[in-house]
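Progress against Task 2.4 (sequence-to-structure conversion) is shown through the following example record, which the project officer requested during the mid-term review.
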Amino acid sequence: MPDRHVLSTSLLLLALAVVTGCSRNPEAAKRKYLERGDTYFQQQKYDAALIEYRNAVQQDPRFGEARFKLAQTYYKRGDAPNAVSEAVRAADLLPDRVDAQMQAARFLILARKFADARARAEHVLQLDPTHIQAQIALGNALAGLQDLEGAIAQIEEAVRLDPDRSTSYTSLGTLQAAHGDLPAAEQAFRKAISRDQKSVLARLTLAQFLWQAGRLDEAEHTMKGALALEPTSVVANRTIAAFYGSTKRPDQAEPFLKAAVAADGSAAGRLTLADYYISRDRPSDAIAILESLASDAKLGGAARTRRAILHQRAGELDLADRVIADVLAKEPKNVQALLVKADLLMRHKKPEEALTAVDAAIASDSRSANAQFARGRILVAVNRPEDAKRAFNEVLKLNPRADAAQVELARLHLKSGATEASVALAGDAVKTNPRSLEARVVLARGLMIHGDMAQAEALIKKLVANAPDAAVVHAQMGVLLTLKKDPKAASIEFDRALSLDPFQLEAVDGLIRLDVAAGRIAQARGRVEALVARAPQNPGLLLLGARTFMITKDAKRAEALLVQAITVDPAMLAAYSMLGQIYLGQGRLDEARREFEKLAEQQSPPVAALTMVGIIQQTQLRTADARRTFERVLQLDARAAVAANNLAWMYTEAGENLDIALQLAQTAKAALPNQSDVDDTLGWIYYQKHLLPQAITAMRHSVELQPSNATYQYHLGLAYARSGDNSRARRALETALKLNPTFEGAVEASTTIASLRESGDITAPRPR
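Structure tokens generated for the chain above:
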């Protein structure tokens, strides 16, 4: 019997000889690694396959076949950037391999690198002009480059080359739909089905087209047809589940989501089912799935983030904070976790820290539309509307069909008085998502404010028919009927809204306005007090109550409600502003200034509040303080029109910095082109600089805007006098004295008129 020790040693030496031989023969080594990688890939052991393919590339960096397989493996693992990179390298190393070029083209299209994808597809067509998939890839690349006509032509060529190929018709229909030719698109989708009666993809594509067209019964029937062909199709089950969710039949979605999970058992599918349970407020069902995913290498962070969301919904904010902190400690660039953290910080009333978290999410993924949207919502909350608009516009750059961003922009434009822009944006949102209640309500508001009552009425009637249990819809009908001078019918609609939601503030406000208009002051006040007693922590209701008491001449109660609102929500800017106005109206200027200074501490940047501080300081004749305040405002925002106008006037009155004053006045004019005092300031500066034609133009505009203002008439008269137009000068100055015989420049006006009568050439005095 041989010595076992000797035999083992011999085997070890043989193994070493094999390894040594491989290391001395890189060609053999790389082939061995490639074979092992292929074996693992076929067994769906993608992590192991990745190691082997990488080893092969280390042996020979120009091994195109290994890079080709490496790209496929990265793609299977969900690593799109590396998949694209390796696919391009493989295509460069294998220029005559059609499959390598096509893989690169497909991955480049997924990465939205359409110009590069186009070059790859065109190269394949040079190798094989009849290659169907290359024609389709070229069409998709051209579509991505916004050349829809060229894209359609390429797909039509693919159809011509192989008229029995179902997928060609599917691609053609998709492009024709994007081009707006819906009848041709539908015909192409139906041809795809006729060419391949067993194609699940063809039926699902037609179903989605019908779904988008609002033909819901046909869409549902077509989806069920696809499922009948392949009941275990993950794509078909998830598609019909999404369909039921979007058509307000979420309970019907559950069995299809379960079927999708049963079909592939993937972690992603289970996470989708957990999301469904979260949306249906079934936390225990969601938690059971999330716990099973908590240790998953790829989706564990996402599962724990959802646990944090559930804690947040349950009011367990401290626990939610800890879970998110744990996720971010392990995955500091987890975008969803950063967004949940931002939401938690907003609930903790820490908006600046929330913005920091959102900015970190954007830094992690600059293409995250969700992160930009969250940023916009926070900026709205901290009263930075222009910055919010920029964030929502970034969302639309990333996803032009983001109807939620369109709605938010429509709201912001409506609030700023840009009604036409608001209506256009809300209309786009309705086109994007015709079922969006929010979009249609904002559109209705905009139409009413814009005066398009017929369109508004037609839209609101449809809303009432489609959503009879939505309080906001009845509130809009109440507003419409109020505008149509039908208070009785309006009151019925407002009452209906409040029966559905007792704190629907538009309806409350509508009823209060009707009460006040009818002289029912006690009833208006009683309505507010009853609601405040039920919800003393509702800041919006407290603000509405304060407005009610201001309208009904009870400043003391209004003040108390505003103080209460600020206590509940220290960041409520409108409450500070209204409180300051009360103090200002009562001559309590020091208190008013202090309130606006508090408001400035809350605003970011505090342009509006500091402007009010400066105005109060002017009123108190604290000129130096006002000047410093306005200068600070303009450091924060060089386009702050009111501060620019007032500071320009102060510089001019002091007889200094006239060039800077002119720049400031021009800034104010650009922002406020039809504001009489801005034109008067601009004209007065021109007058001081002896630019009389410009001065007269600006001053005439101020007089046209406000002809009853004695000071404006006076300034215009002086400008005419200095220019030698005595008759116009005399008329303007006499008008000023008739309007107000004792205005500040009255003595100089009288003196100038007397001089004009004695002589045709005068030098007009400068008013005190």
